[in-house]
Amino acid sequence: MPGDEDGTPWEAGPSPRHDDALLAVRAAEGDEEAFEALVLRHGPRLLQLATRLLGSPTEAEDAVQESFVSAWRKLPEFRRDARFGTWMHRIVTNRCLNLLRARPRVAGLDDVPEPAAPEHQVSPPRAVEGIAAVEDLTKAMEGLSVEQRVCWVLRELDDMPYESVAETVGITTGAARARVFRARRHLMETMAAWR
Q1: pLDDT at 177 over 50
Q2: What pLDDT, in 10s, does the model give residues 73-104?
Q3: From CA 40, how far away is CA 26, in angstroms rounded?
Q4: CA quadruple 25, 30, 33, 35: dihedral positive or negative?
Q5: How far apart are CA 148 and CA 187, in angstroms?
């Protein structure tokens, strides 16, 4: 398990900002165990973000792994006044944006992840209705621009404040608010039949 020179283990759970900063400095100096601790701390949340953005767990794993490789190479450039988690969110988001932009505009039904089976019994008509709602939401999400989708996911699913969304995507707070507003309006209009 990674730890300090005196053998004190680093925890893989949430940590104060200064711990991340110290680990980032050590990792920039070539300390692989410090970087491993950062990966353990931030990897699960970044994987969740990438999965929400890309819709494919396999593609999300690749994006996060490539983002950490990129971060390892760029650590000497990391600004010490920035938060490591925010920096990694930006790297992962940009990687996902690039992947989304490279995709063809329309996805087939085979590309849509199958919803998980519920733990309890659901009546067949209710199950069919749930599947139809997921399919309609997936189609509605495809109607968003890549930029709107990313801002909406960060704000609505990742529960980021608008300022953090703007910082992560590299736009103004006003632009982030506008993209989320347009995404919400599109989704509400498209999903009106489900209300």
Answers
A1: yes
A2: 998 888 777 788 888 988 999 999 889 888 77
A3: 15
A4: positive
A5: 11
- DSSP assignment letter at 13: S
What gap in Å lies between CA 92 and CA 168, rounded to an integer? 9
Question: Which of 168, 187, 195, 189 is closest to 45 using CA atoms?
Answer: 168
Q: Using an 8 Å Cβ cutoff, are 75 and 27 in contact?
A: yes
Q: How far apart are CA 162 and CA 25, in angstroms?
A: 28
Question: Which residues, at least 6 apart from 25, have a Cβ–Cβ distance to it below 8 Å?
Answer: 80
* Long-range contacts, stretch 47-52, CB < 8 angstroms, 24+ apart: 48/158, 49/89, 49/92, 49/93, 49/96, 49/153, 49/154, 49/158, 50/92, 50/95, 50/96, 52/153, 52/157, 52/158
pTM: 0.64
